[in-house]
Amino acid sequence: MDKFRVLVVDDEQDFLETIIKRLQARNINVKGAESGTKALELMAQQDFDVVILDVKMPGMDGIETLREMKKRKPLVEVIMLTGHASVESGIQGMQLGAFDYVMKPVALDELLEKMRQAYERKLIQEGQTQ
């Protein structure tokens, strides 16, 4: 897989640490944030290609975070993480510009494939804007 930069945003610390370790084990350049606010701070400091964003978070939720991310970095591709009760939020996220959404718990292979597809779309869009 190409070297692309991934940001994982989830308020569940155990999930966040686990997914970061599993992505790093596959040589993916990944950072984590436990809130939407923290994610936006990280995005201000460095570029990411793909964001994996939990919908349900205290404070700034995933939808609000997505809106702000797309305002600041329109070409970043976002994959929403939804629980079974929040599929509507995943769909709403796509209407706001998210690449796709996946249900938690997500199989790592499925998530990796979505990340690959999102990164390819970002490359195509960047090629069209340059």
Give average pLDDT, whole number.
94
- Which residues form runs of ≥5 with pLDDT under 50? none
Largest sheet: 5 strands, parallel
**What would CATH call the class?**
Alpha Beta
Structural class: alpha/beta
User: How many domains, in number, for the residues?
Assistant: 1
- Strand proportion: 15-25%
CATH level-four homologous superfamily name:
Response regulator
Spatial extent as radius of gyration: 13 Å
* Global shape: globular
Cross-sheet strand order for the largest sheet: 2-1-3-4-5
Strand/helix succession: EHEHEHEHEH
Count of DSSP H/I helices? 5
Write down how many β-strands occur, each being a DSSP E stretch of 2 or more residues.
Answer: 5
Termini separation comes to: 23 Å
Percent in helix: 40-55%
- CATH architecture assignment: 3-Layer(aba) Sandwich
**CATH topological fold name:** Rossmann fold
